[in-house]
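Changelog note: in this version the structure field was regenerated for every chain. One regenerated record is shown below for reference.
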Amino acid sequence: MNKSDLIEIFSEEAELNSQSAEFVVDEVFNAMTEALVQGDGVEIRGFGSFKIRKYDSYTGRNPKTGKNISVSPKKLPFFKVGKELRERVIDKVGQGAK
């Protein structure tokens, strides 16, 4: 599923025109993004949580040349799946594999 699919489903379920549905989806993503940029976490109960993880600097290796390079510290978004979503996916995958 991509963003366009999400907008289409939301439009149908909420009985909104596609322009309004796109606005709502964009606003939700923008609010989540802004919270992460400001260092806050985003928790959606039953789904999961997003937070910023800090990574220290380390010495890496350029795969093309084999030379060692210094990788600077960084902050990246991280998603942790919620218990309800994890159990639901495990149940579906388990049933589909039989």
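Spot check on this record: The chain has a mean pLDDT of 93. Residues 42-98 form a domain with the HU Protein; Chain A fold (CATH 4.10.520.10).
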